[in-house]
Amino acid sequence: MRAIGFSDRAIERAVEAERLYRIFRGTYAVGHSNLGPRGRLRAATLACGEGAVISHRSAGALLGLLDRGPAVIDVIAPPSRGRKIDGIRFHRVRAPRGDEVGTVNGIPCTSPARTLVDLAGTVGDWTLRSCFERAAQRKVLDIPAIEASMDPGRRGNRSLHALIDEWRRAAPIAKKGKLNERDRWRDRELFTAGYNTLRITSHQAERETAAVADAIATRLG
Predict the structure, then answer these.
(1) For 168-182, what is the mean pLDDT?
(2) Fewer beta carbons below 10 Å: N end or C end of the chain?
(3) According to the model, what pLDDT value does residue 69 have?
(4) How far is residue 33's CA from residue 56's CA, in Å, rounded to a whole number?
(5) In the chain, what are the helix, strand and coil shares in percent, each to the nearest 5?
(6) Is 48 exposed, middle or buried (CB count within 10 Å of its CB: 0-12, 13-18, 19+)?
(7) Within a 10 A sphere around the Cβ of 47, how many other Cβ atoms?
(8) Where are the beta strands (DSSP E) in the chain?
């Protein structure tokens, strides 16, 4: 705004008159404040300056690896942009390389591989496993890229290595077209951890909802 001739006082007057709505320090919405979750993510990267990207749990949600992101937005930003901004959590980790960033609907974001590496030091093992599964379903699980993004001594590396080893043991089964065998492998792993699985088809979930709910209630009972 300064570049197009706005003074600080002119910006303040626009805020007072509700022509501008402050989202984060230095970033504003024009005419209304109802940006929605993705609008807030874009505003967060603008507030943090050039080179800032959405990361960690916020990136996980944006990429569809998590159901929802945190209220405070996760960002990796250049050290020069490391000042505190309310509503934004800065992560002091290695800045992403060029192959570790991309955009989702115009929002700068860490790649799926880098996001999984960042999540490994942030979420529990079962949440991380779920993120792996979702990445595979979305066809964005790239094991070599994950390994390339891992740094020695980083928190979460042990969990990542364990998941990668499990995935590689199961991958030959899937490549041979024996998807049922891979499902059984996953069921066995869950059973070993104390979980029971109940497999249903998408048709059953959509057309036989009551029966599926009764079966789940019986299993939980």
Answers:
(1) 60
(2) C
(3) 92
(4) 25
(5) 55, 10, 35
(6) buried
(7) 22
(8) 20-24, 27-30, 53-54, 73-76, 88-90, 101-104, 107-110
Q: Is the pTM of this model over 0.85?
A: no
Between 11 and 183, whose confidence is greater? 11
Q: What is the mean pLDDT of the chain?
A: 83
Residue keyed to tokens 């979980």: 195
- The single residue listed with the structure tokens 């990542």 is 160
Round to whole Å and give the CA distance between 160 and 163.
5
Joined tokens for residue 90: 């800065």
- Element containing residue 187 per DSSP (H, E): helix 179-192
Two tokens, residue 110? 């860490």
Task: Write the pLDDT tens digit of every residue in 36-49.
Answer: 889 899 999 998 88
Mean pLDDT confidence for 120-131: 92
**Measured on CA atoms in the order 114, 119, 125, 131, is the torsion positive or negative?**
negative
Q: Please report, in angstroms and rounded to a whole number, the separation of the first and last CA atoms in the chain.
A: 61
The residues that bridge with 107 in the sheet, in sequence order, are: 104
| Amino acid letter, residue 62 | L
Rounded CA gap, 133 and 154, in Å? 22
